[in-house]
Amino acid sequence: MDFLLAVLSFLIVLTPLILIHEWGHFIACRLTGVTVLEFGLGFPPRAAKLFERNGTEFTLNWLPLGGFVRPLGEDFVRPVGEKATERDRQAYRRYLEEMAALRKKVPKLKSVAEATPLQRLFFLAAGSGMNVIAAVVLLIIAATISLPPVVLAAAPNSPAGNGGLQTGDVITAVNGVAVSNAAQIEELIEAQRNSEQLITLTVQRGDETLQLTLGEQTGRFPNQAVLITGVTRGMPADGIFLPNDIILSVDGRVRSVQSIVEYVRERGGQTVTFVVQRGTERLTLEVVPLSNVAAGQPAVGIGLQPLEFSLTTGLALADRAQGKSFPEAISAGIEQTGFILGQLIRFPVDLIRGALTIEEARPVSVVGISQLGGQVVSAAVEDRSPLRLINFAALISLALGFTNLLPIPGLDGGRILFVLVEIVRGKPMAPEREGFIHMIGLMFLLGLFMILVVNDIVNPIGQLIR
């Protein structure tokens, strides 16, 4: 199933984004008058010629590294010499002459070398530009989508706890009235609390839709607690706590997130007793925090989130997404695009500075991206909403655009660097020499690709984030 979801995510996320990127190059060629010989999905060797339109071959290729647009004067990643350009020119002209019966005039052919440096910069940057535009559109769409609130926890002895609500339940309606945020739920329940009518919540739990009725309060319940959101492998908490455990007290006292963090840090090497609620069970658990932990580093290895329980129902709810009006969504989409681009730009800087570990900065291949995409597809199906998939596609689109602009030979950024050098020098580098450098870069990228593919197969990235 994981494999099928990964393939599905490749088809519905990566493939369209690659096509959008190459379409940007294609449109730039058309706008600058450069003749396009081939539009390829994947890198050669060629698997199949799909069709031909206006002299441009549209092809499917075996290596799923991306795609390419091959204008006159280039092979699929590099400029070529005048002999190869003239050979392509003659082949293209023969095609046009075959169509001469339908044309009054054969159009002038234009190679990349005949384009001005500014036209070439436009052509090379257009693919990444289209990825940015696609991301903005996707994030604008995402900003208009609403998701009903999710249950963080139901306090023990409370109406919600006795009614069977669980962490992760999604509340979609109260007594048949659809809801889109936690405030609506509280208002509807408060309005009906003093009536004799039972309060029934429509709940989505995984693939099931349930009708749960709030129960009676059977005792005191806390108005505050702390939720464990995750447990780090290999840390003291591993094997003791579970995600969604509710911390009721630490060494006999109710504590906030910050006080728990400080308290366990001060007691490195000593036994600390937690009372937690796990489902319907109340458990007493003991853990020994690490000693001499550096500032900012975990002592136990648990993620924490504060909970505020409703005094009426005992529910702790979280709003997930509130759909915005279209003008607000435009602003939010542009702002979110800028934020993600800023993170991508800071990423290599943080890696060099040592602010990120190698594991945190782990690069992935299309296999790893597809693995992550499979999890996103699964979550989107579970949410019954495309929001996660749209946000994931926007992130990958920006990452694709950013990566292609890195000044590495074989990538668009490497080509742009050569054009900038040409502008400074006042003359281009010999096509054969530039082509050789790009081929070296391509071989490096191919080698890196194979290493990342093997790593993503042997050590799937999806396992690291579960």
Automatic annotation (TrEMBL):
Its EC number is 3.4.24.-. GO terms for biological process: proteolysis. It is an enzyme of class 3 (hydrolase). The keyword Signal does not apply. InterPro entries: PDZ (IPR001478), PDZ_6 (IPR041489), PDZ_sf (IPR036034), Pept_M50_Zn (IPR004387), Peptidase_M50 (IPR008915). Residues 150-207, 198-279 form the PDZ domain. Keywords: Hydrolase, Membrane, Metal-binding, Metalloprotease, Protease, Transmembrane, Transmembrane helix, Zinc. The chain crosses the membrane at residues 389-408, 436-458. SUPFAM superfamilies: PDZ domain-like. It comes from the Bacteria. One of its GO terms (molecular function) is metalloendopeptidase activity. It is a multi-pass membrane protein. It is found in: Membrane. Its main location: membrane. Belongs to the peptidase M50B family. PANTHER family: MEMBRANE METALLOPROTEASE ARASP2, CHLOROPLASTIC-RELATED (PTHR42837:SF2), REGULATOR OF SIGMA-E PROTEASE RSEP (PTHR42837). This is Zinc metalloprotease. The gene is rseP.
